[in-house]
Amino acid sequence: MAATIEPNGVLIFTARRDVRRAVFDALDLDGDFVLLTARDAAQLASLLEDAPPLHVVVVGADGSADTAQGLRILRGSPRYAALPMVYVVDDTPGVAPEGALDWLRAGAIAAELAQRVRAALQVPAVPVQHTPPRSDWRFAFDAGAAWVVASTPDGCILDSGAAMNRLWTGNGPIQGRLLSEVFVMANRSGWPVPDGDAMACTLRRPDGSEIGGEVDVRHIVDHGVHRIAVGFRDLRTVDIAGRALSLLAVLDACPSDDDGMSEAAALLADALELDVVAVWSALPESERGPEVLARIWNGPAPVEWPDAGDLPLLKICLSGEPLVRLGDDGDAPLADPLIEALGLRSYVLLPLLDERRSVIGAVLAGRCRPSNDARVLAPALRAATARFASALELRRAREQGRARGLVDTLTGLPNRLLFNDRLDTTIREAERTGECFATLLIDLDRFKGINETLGHAVGDQVLTSVAKQLRASVRASDTVARYAGDEFTLILRHIIKRDDVLRIAEKIVQAMELPLSLDDGSELQATISIGISFFPDDAVDGELLLRHADEAMYGAKSLGRNNYQIYAANVDAAQQQQAELKVRLRHAVRNDELRVFYQPQVEATSEDIVGMEALVRWEHPELGMISPGFFIPLAEASGLIVPIGEWVLRTACAQAKAWEDRYGLGLRLGVNLSAVQLMQTNLAAVVANALRDTELDPGQLELEVTESISVKTVPHLVETLDALHAMGCRIAIDDFGTGAASLDYLRRLPADRIKIDQSFVRNIGVDPDDEAIVRATIDMAHRLKRGVVAEGVEIEQHLHFLRANGCDELQGYLFCRPLPTVTFEKLLGERERLVTEGHAVPA
Q: N or C: which end of the chain has fewer CB within 10 A?
């Protein structure tokens, strides 16, 4: 009998929800991992109590104290002390902490993480020498305190930590001295001092020097032996720590050009009281050797800097080795012409590393006096170094992009080559997920006349202004490119309804109707024509999508310009394609080609999962996943939506009941009802039978009715919904705000909740009018005692706005994409575990 292969357990530890979601998605798609998540140290400690089988840890390296605490918990556990770790850092700036086995930027999670985790699994575990039980007092204080442990009742110091040894350097060993000799309490109380925190104290050294600070005191009984543990904090570093934090907050604002590098270096020198800051570029492809990008010298006299090629320490640093000399008169500075010329007593030389950990430069920071604040200075300099590395890598990427012809030099947008590559990538992703996206081709009206009458300089200003306007009109996840001359192309992703794209196109046309301001203060009116094609409705390859968008754009021009048009396919070919798909759709249920996906709905304040929406997908054996936006209209037009809708209802109810029996979470299940289904005279009986057969509580089923369904066109709509509501089912109005009868719906229908359409949510932070609509909708619904769910929540800005305005629940890609049954069950299993432990659960 073959041995059972234990799945690889991966712990995802980060406070950032977007990173957790991206890591979960990337590893879940790979399929061979058991995934556990923890968002903070408390959750992590609780998880480890159950001793789960873990093999790799993926850590979000955010530099926070909570993350550091969590890592100490891991390393302090004999079972997990030797686990390999893969760190995820911000795209810019950020580097992994020292000691990381591997690391990557957040933007590379989808493409590289699974491979990195598999590589980490191959690294043999290193045996860890566990600390004997009697050293548990070492963890009585937060990391970084200068601690000692003394005996009682005499207060003789028995042991000390590295930070205290650095403070005591040059005064002989501290062991054997008395607490009363070393620590003088501000209130003159004698030792032993009782337990307490942040008590004012002076550290008195044998050479007569004193350091003001504060102590935490703990009396600890260890294996029957009484000890006094004292943690001392040097308050001299408090001021520079505050300035270091302020510095890191403003460094990002500095541009990545030469002036920006010099500005950042000056800020670093001022904030940390440094005498010198220097930045070198040493790109591997450069033939000129190290090049000085910034150099700040605050010393007493001018200094002639040696040539970079004559600096041995710089060569060592550029080989990848950091050089740190920040101790209190500790390690003497190494011999080097520059160090000697500047008279530095303390310094760091840190390599600048790109995303692949290749050295692309170096930073020197130092003082002409010893540094007593190394605990604050070292991490601040490492973080600042990450900023310089990120800026240098960005410059390099831009230069390489221009050299390789990927970026348009005038507008800074992707050009035709890069756009085509992104379009192919988007198509591959859409084929895998079954999503729909739109391609827009935008052409400036009568641009040739602008160039001929006003000159090419004005024409360039117009193109630059149009590029800025287009970027401001779409989301960060969308793509804007300059395709050729006065043509621009867009990719709008995550499209549920065509109307969403039309609203964006309308806003772009309206925005371009405003006069453009030129450099000489004059204004110019420029308009555009837009052509739109959809994947997969109009085409399934990039070239054909663009060709169809181009045809639609010329259709817009033929109608007078300054408007947009959707591609209209050849009627005969389209009808033939639809007829073929209708035939196949009739057998989709019988052939087991339909799938039900589930997307979580979360409570806005706690971000706890409270419900899920059932979404149907069609996995065509030849065409792959087909967008619901394409086949649902076919099903409605042919009447197939009735059997398909009943199948989805029964399948989702049965699955919800199974999850309820297994987890007991009481999650609400949302199922959509189409206009055709609502016209069925026996709809209430169909729902009742499905609930009876699956034994799902009617109160857990929420039937969603789109606002576009008219009370006038669907006979007995109110009566049907009243019957469903009387049965115990909940009723929700879907796509609220897009129809013409919003108030009539709220007044006449037995609605428990409304769902704000994603087209309004998407424009939060972009369109003040849509923000006002969202606010008014939430307020109106609450006044009428209806709950509110916002759909299409994709970024943190959406979350903050909706939470601030009292939205009850949220749904969208910020929390989770629609998931197949197996993956959603993993999510519920993790949620159930955390709920059982009493922790709040973010999606």
A: N
